[in-house]
Write a structure and sequence with these properties.
The complex is a heterodimer of chains A (134) and B (823).
Chain A lengths: L4 E5 L7 E2 L1 H8 L5 E3 L2 E2 L1 E5 L4 H11 L3 H13 L8 E3 L2 H10 L3 E6 L8 E2 L1 E2 L13
Parallel strand pairs in A: 2-9, 5-6, 5-7
Antiparallel strand pairs in A: 1-7, 1-8, 3-4
Chain B lengths: L4 E2 L2 E10 L2 E8 L4 E7 L2 H4 L2 H15 L9 E7 L2 E7 L3 E3 H7 L4 H20 L12 E4 L4 E3 L4 H5 L8 H14 L1 H8 L4 H4 L7 H16 L9 H10 L5 H4 L5 H10 L11 H26 L12 H10 L5 H13 L1 H23 L6 E4 L3 E3 L6 H15 L6 E2 L2 H4 L9 H8 L3 E10 L2 E10 L4 E8 L6 H15 L6 H8 L6 H14 L4 H17 L4 H16 L5 H18 L4 H13 L3 H14 L4 H13 L3 H14 L4 H13 L3 H14 L4 H13 L3 H14 L4 H13 L3 H14 L7 H10 L3 H14 L14 H4 L2 H10 L3
Parallel strand pairs in B: 10-12, 10-13, 11-13
Antiparallel strand pairs in B: 1-2, 2-3, 3-4, 4-6, 5-6, 7-8, 8-9, 13-14, 14-15
The chains are: A alpha/beta (134), B alpha+beta (823).
Chain lengths: 134, 823
C-alpha cells in the first residue's frame, strides 16, 4: 500500500479546496482556467509511476490506452490546446509546478516539495479519513 | 610472432616484408574477419616521437573512407612497436599485374580512373601519398584498385625530427642514394620536386601516377637509369618517349594525358586528380561511344560474298572473342572455301553470340536494390535520435525516387539497430544487394556523420564518406549523400531524377527539424507517438505553410487516427483529405500524399477514386510499401483476391520485417475463409513479433471461425492486455464471448463498452457485431446504422468478413452493403 497522492499547485493558484467533481473536470480538460486569466496546466507522471496509476484509476477512470485516446481526440477537436504535460520524476513535477503559472501536479503525499501548496479534495487533505486519492 | 594474439588479433601468417616493416595476415577474433597487421619498422619503434607521429598520421589516414583506398581499421602497439590494422586484400599488386602481361587499353583507362579517384579523395582531405608506385597499388580479384600506404612514406622517411615535406623528401633521397639496391624501384616514380628536395604538394602524386600509367600502358618506365643517381637525372632532365610510339594501339588522347601528368614543371602538370580523372573518363566515354557507333553502323550491313570481314567485325573479335584454335581455323578455312558468304555470316553470328554470352556471364551484376540501415546515434542521446532516424528516412525517400533501384522502406529497416548480423545476413534478410550504414555523432555545436555503402556480395565497400554538418545543414547533407550514392551505383539519372534528389521541400531548417521529429514520433505507431506527431507536423506547417511533406505527414497521422479508431472516421476523413490535397497542391508527385488520399477515399467508399490514387502512388514510387499494402487491402475487401495477394506480397517483399505486412498475408487467408492457412501464417507473424496486438486479434478470429473458442478467447485476452486496455480489443473480446456462447460475459463487455463510449470513442460496429452474435438482430442493425453514420472503418469488410454470416441473409444487411458500395 502506498501513501496518499497529494495535489500540489503553485502559490498563485487562487484555490484551496476542490470537490472531486471539479477535480475531474480539471483533469478532463473541461475546466481550463483557475481564474479569468490563469490557465490550468496539467502535469502528469509518465507511465509506470504510481501517481499516474492512481490518477487514471480514481479520477479519469480510464485505462492507459483510453487516457491517450481521450486527449488525442480532445486536441483533434480543438477542445484543448494540448494534453497534460508529462513529467518523469517528482522533482521535475515540483520544479515545473513552481515555474509554470497555474500548474497542478500529483505527488506522493510524503514527498511534497517546499514552496508548493497542497489542495484539499472535498475538504480533505492527504492522510485524512476518506481522502479519495490513494 | 605466428600464432600469437595481440589485442584481439590472432597472427596467422606473414604476408610480406619491406621498407614499411612486416605485414602479417591476422584474424580479428571479435569480428571474425581477416585483417592485415602492418608493423612499423624498428627505426620508428625505437623513437617515441616517431611513434606518436606515426599514430597521429595514422589517425588522419583512417579518415580516408573510399572504395579505392585500402581501409585502415585500427592502430595498436605491441611490445612498444606500433602497428596498423588494415583490410586484408585478396588479389595482386599492380606490379605483379604489369609483369604478367600487357594490359588492354580499356583496362589501363579503367584502372587509371580508379587511382585518380583515390588520389582525389585523399587530396581533398589534405593527405598526399608521396609514394605512388605499382607495388603500393593493389588489384583485387574483382578488378578494383586499392591504393595502400597513404601518407606512410612520410612516416618512414627518416628520424622523427624532420617533419616538413622538403626535409622528408631529402631524407628519402639520401636514403635512396645510399641504398640504391633497396629503393631503386621507388625512385623511378618520384617527381622532379621530390628528387630536388623541394616542398611537396598533391601534384607530386599526379606525377607518380603519370609514371604508373606510362608503365601500365607500355610495360616500361618513362625515366630509367641503372643506378638511382642516373634515374634522378632522367626524372629531372629527360623527355619521355611518347607511350604511343611504343604501343601503336594507344589512343592519342591517352598519350596526351600521360605526358601531361609527366610534365616536369608542377605548374604545367595536371593541378588536381579530379582533372586527370575527368580527362580519363571523357576518353573512356568517347572510346565506348566510338565502339558502339561502329558496332551499330557496321554490323547490320550485309557482308559482300567476296569481301573480307569488315573492320567492325575485326574489332569485335579482338575485344570479346577468344582466338580460334588452329584446328578450328583450318576447319573454318575449308568452309570459307566452299561458301564464303555463308561462312562469314555464320562466323559473325557465332562471334556475336559468343560476345553476348561472355557479356552475360562476365558482366558485373548491377546493384538494383538497397537498404539504408538506421544511422547509429552514437552516444545514444535521445535528443538527437530523431536526427539519426530522420536522415535515414530522408535518404530512403530520396533514393526511392530513382529508377531501377529498389530501396527498402524505413519501416522495414527501423528495427535493425545495433544488429550483430553480418552485412551478408542483413542483406539476405532484407533481400537487397547493398547496404548503406551511417553513424551520427554530436560534436559541440555540430555533428559528424560517416557513411558506408557496402556490396553485400563479398562484403565490399563501394563508397564511404564523412561530413561535419551543423544542424541547419541536414537537409543538404541527405541530398548530397543520395546524389553520391546514385553516382556510385551508376544509376543513369535523367535531369528530372536529379531534380527530385536535389529537391528541397522546404528551405526553413526549423520546419525540416520539426518534420523529422514528427516522422520520428509517427513511426512509433503508438497513441503517444501519434499525438506528438500531429502537434509537430502542425508546428512545421506553421513555420513553413508551403511545406508539402509536412501536410503529407499530417495526412498520414490522421489516417492512423481513424485506423486506430481514436475518433470516428467521419470526423477524421475530411481533415485527412484536406491535408493530402494540400500536400498534392504543393507537390503533386508525393506518393505518400496520394496514398493517404487513396485511404481517405477508400473509407469514404469512393471506390474508383481510391483505386486511382493508390495506382498513382505506386506509379510515382513503386518502392513505397504502404501504397501496396493499402491497395491490397482495398482489393481484398472487394473480393479481388488474386490482385490483393499480389499487392500484399509486394508490400511484404518491400518491407520483409514488417509485422503488419506479414499479418496481411495471414488475414487475406482469413477473409478467403482458409482458416488453417490463416492460423499458420499469423502464428509465423507472432513468432517474429509476439507482442503484435493485431496478430493476436486475427489469430483469435481465425480460431473462432475454426470452432476453437477457447483458443480464440486466449488470443483476445492477450490482445487486450498488450494494448493496455484498448477499447477495440475489448470489443473483440466481447464478440469472442458471444461467439463462444458466454452470454453473461458478452453482455458485461457490452455494458463496459457503452460506458467507455461516454468518454472515448467506441466503434459502433463492435457493438453491432456482439449483438449479431448474440442473435439480437434488431440491435445489431441499430448499431450498424450508427457505424454507417460514423463511416466506421470496419464497414469496408462487410462483404468478405465471415463474422457477419449470421445476419448476412437479412435484407437489411444486403441494403447496408449496397449503401457502402459493396454490391
Amino acid at each position: 500500500m502506498g501513501s496518499d497522492i497529494a495535489i500540489v499547485v503553485r502559490q498563485d493558484v487562487p484555490v484551496e479546496n476542490v470537490t472531486f467533481a471539479e477535480l475531474r473536470k480539471l483533469l478532463l480538460g473541461d475546466r481550463q482556467f483557475w481564474s479569468s486569466n490563469l490557465r490550468v496546466t496539467l502535469l502528469v507522471r509518465a507511465p509506470g509511476a504510481r501517481e499516474r496509476e492512481v490518477v487514471l484509476k480514481t479520477i479519469y477512470q480510464m485505462s492507459e490506452a483510453q487516457f491517450r485516446q481521450y486527449w488525442i481526440a480532445k486536441v483533434f477537436r480543438a477542445e484543448a490546446a494540448s494534453g497534460p504535460r508529462v513529467v518523469y520524476s517528482n522533482e521535475m513535477a515540483a520544479e515545473l509546478t513552481s515555474a509554470i503559472p497555474g500548474a497542478v501536479a500529483f505527488v506522493e503525499a510524503t514527498q511534497v516539495p517546499k514552496g508548493l501548496r497542497v489542495l484539499k479534495i472535498n475538504g480533505k487533505l492527504p492522510g485524512d479519513k476518506d481522502y479519495p486519492l490513494r | 610472432m605466428l600464432g600469437r594474439t595481440i589485442s584481439h588479433y590472432r597472427i596467422l601468417s606473414v604476408l610480406g616484408k619491406g621498407g614499411m616493416g612486416i605485414v602479417y595476415k591476422a584474424e580479428d577474433i571479435r569480428l571474425g574477419r581477416s585483417v592485415a597487421l602492418k608493423f612499423a619498422p624498428e627505426s620508428i619503434a625505437i623513437d617515441r616521437i616517431a611513434v606518436e607521429r606515426f599514430q597521429r598520421e595514422a589517425r588522419a589516414v583512417s579518415a580516408l573512407n573510399h572504395p579505392n583506398i585500402c581501409t585502415l581499421h585500427d592502430i595498436g602497439e605491441a611490445d612498444g612497436c606500433p602497428f596498423l590494422v588494415m583490410e586484408c586484400l585478396e588479389g595482386e599488386t599492380l606490379r605483379d599485374r604489369i609483369l604478367s602481361r600487357q594490359l588492354p587499353v580499356d583496362e589501363v583507362i579503367d584502372l587509371a580512373i580508379q587511382m585518380a579517384d583515390a588520389l582525389d579523395a585523399a587530396h581533398a582531405r589534405g593527405i598526399v601519398h608521396r609514394d605512388i608506385k605499382p607495388a603500393n597499388v593493389f588489384l583485387t580479384q574483382r578488378g578494383h584498385i586499392k591504393v595502400m600506404d597513404f601518407g606512410l612514406a612520410k612516416l618512414t622517411a627518416g628520424p622523427s625530427a624532420p617533419s616538413s615535406d622538403s626535409t622528408m623528401a631529402t631524407a628519402v633521397l639520401d636514403n635512396a642514394l645510399t641504398n640504391p639496391g633497396s629503393t631503386i624501384g621507388t625512385v623511378s616514380y618520384m617527381s622532379p620536386e621530390q628528387v630536388s628536395g623541394e616542398e611537396l604538394d598533391a601534384r607530386t602524386d599526379l606525377f607518380s601516377l603519370g609514371v604508373v600509367l606510362y608503365e601500365l600502358a607500355t610495360g616500361r618506365l618513362p625515366f630509367r637509369g641503372n643506378t638511382s643517381a642516373l634515374a634522378f637525372v632522367a626524372i629531372l632532365h629527360d623527355t619521355p618517349i611518347p607511350p604511343g610510339s611504343l604501343r601503336p594501339d594507344l589512343p592519342p588522347e591517352l598519350d596526351r594525358i600521360i605526358l601531361k601528368a609527366l610534365e616536369k614543371s608542377r605548374d604545367l602538370r595536371y593541378q588536381a586528380a579530379a582533372e586527370i580523372r575527368a580527362d580519363l573518363k571523357r576518353l573512356r566515354r568517347d572510346s565506348d561511344s566510338n565502339r558502339s557507333i561502329a558496332a551499330t553502323v557496321e554490323s547490320p550491313r550485309p557482308v559482300p560474298a567476296a569481301a573480307p570481314p569488315s573492320d567492325s567485325y575485326q574489332s569485335i573479335t579482338s575485344v570479346s572473342a577468344p582466338a580460334p584454335s588452329p584446328s578450328s581455323a583450318e576447319y573454318l578455312a575449308q568452309v570459307v572455301k566452299r561458301n564464303r558468304r555463308a561462312a562469314v555470316i555464320a562466323l559473325a553470328v557465332m562471334v556475336v553470340l559468343g560476345a553476348l554470352g561472355a557479356y552475360y556471364w562476365l558482366r558485373p551484376t548491377a546493384i538494383d536494390s538497397l537498404a539504408v540501415l538506421p544511422f547509429e546515434n552514437v552516444g545514444g542521446d535521445p535528443a538527437t535520435e530523431y536526427l539519426s532516424d530522420g536522415i535515414t528516412e530522408s535518404i530512403i525517400n530520396s533514393l526511392s525516387q530513382l529508377p531501377k533501384l529498389s530501396v527498402r522502406s524505413f519501416s522495414s529497416v527501423q528495427h535493425i539497430r545495433k544488429s550483430t548480423a553480418s552485412p551478408q545476413e542483413t542483406g539476405k534478410a532484407l533481400k537487397v544487394r547493398a547496404l548503406l550504414t551511417g553513424r551520427l555523432v554530436k560534436r559541440g555545436d555540430g555533428f559528424a556523420i560517416s557513411t558506408e555503402l557496402i556490396d553485400v556480395n563479398g562484403n565490399r565497400q563501394i563508397w564511404g564518406s564523412q561530413y561535419t554538418p551543423r544542424l541547419t545543414d541536414f537537409q543538404a547533407i541527405q541530398e548530397q549523400i543520395s546524389r553520391e550514392i546514385s553516382d556510385r551505383l551508376r544509376v543513369q539519372l535523367t535531369g528530372q531524377d536529379l531534380r527530385r534528389i536535389a529537391h528541397q521541400s522546404t528551405t526553413d531548417s526549423v520546419a525540416y527539424q520539426l518534420y523529422l521529429q514528427g516522422r520520428f514520433q509517427w513511426n512509433k505507431r503508438t497513441l503517444e507517438g501519434m499525438q506528438e506527431s500531429i502537434d509537430l507536423f502542425q508546428q512545421a506547417i506553421n513555420k513553413d505553410p508551403q511545406y508539402a511533406l509536412a501536410y503529407a505527414g499530417q495526412a498520414d497521422a490522421y489516417a492512423l487516427l481513424a485506423d486506430f479508431s481514436v475518433l470516428p472516421a467521419r470526423e477524421v476523413l475530411p481533415k485527412l483529405e484536406s491535408a493530402a490535397q494540400k500536400a498534392l497542391q504543393l507537390e503533386d508527385r508525393l506518393a505518400e500524399a496520394h496514398t493517404s488520399l487513396g485511404w481517405a477515399r477508400f473509407h469514404n467508399w469512393d471506390w474508383p477514386g481510391a483505386e486511382q490514387e493508390f495506382k498513382r502512388a505506386i506509379e510515382l514510387n513503386q518502392g513505397y510499401p504502404t501504397a501496396h499494402a493499402w491497395y491490397g487491402e482495398y482489393l481484398m475487401v472487394l473480393g479481388r483476391s488474386d490482385e490483393a495477394q499480389r499487392e500484399m506480397a509486394l508490400a511484404q517483399e518491400l518491407n520483409p520485417v514488417s509485422s503488419a505486412a506479414k499479418l496481411a498475408l495471414g488475414y487475406r487467408f482469413y477473409y478467403s475463409r482458409q482458416y488453417p492457412q490463416a492460423v499458420d501464417q499469423i502464428q509465423k507473424t507472432l513468432a517474429a513479433d509476439p507482442a503484435f496486438v493485431p496478430a493476436h486479434v486475427y489469430l483469435g478470429r481465425a480460431w473462432q471461425q475454426s470452432g476453437k473458442s477457447t483458443e480464440a478467447l486466449v488470443e483476445f485476452r492477450k490482445a487486450l492486455d498488450l494494448s493496455q486496455g484498448d477499447t477495440n480489443e475489448l470489443g473483440w473480446l466481447g464478440q469472442g464471448y458471444a461467439a463462444a456462447g458466454q452470454q453473461a460475459d458478452a453482455r458485461k463487455t457490452l455494458a463496459d463498452l457503452k460506458e467507455r463510449g461516454q468518454q472515448t470513442y467506441v466503434q459502433p460496429i463492435a457493438l453491432g457485431l456482439i449483438h449479431a452474435l448474440l442473435g439480437e438482430k434488431d440491435q445489431a442493425f441499430d448499431w450498424l446504422q450508427r457505424a454507417f453514420d460514423d463511416r466506421s472503418t470496419g464497414l469496408v469488410y462487410l462483404k468478405v468478413d465471415p463474422a457477419w454470416d449470421g445476419i448476412r441473409g437479412d435484407s437489411r444487411f444486403t441494403e447496408l452493403q449496397n449503401r457502402v458500395g459493396l454490391k
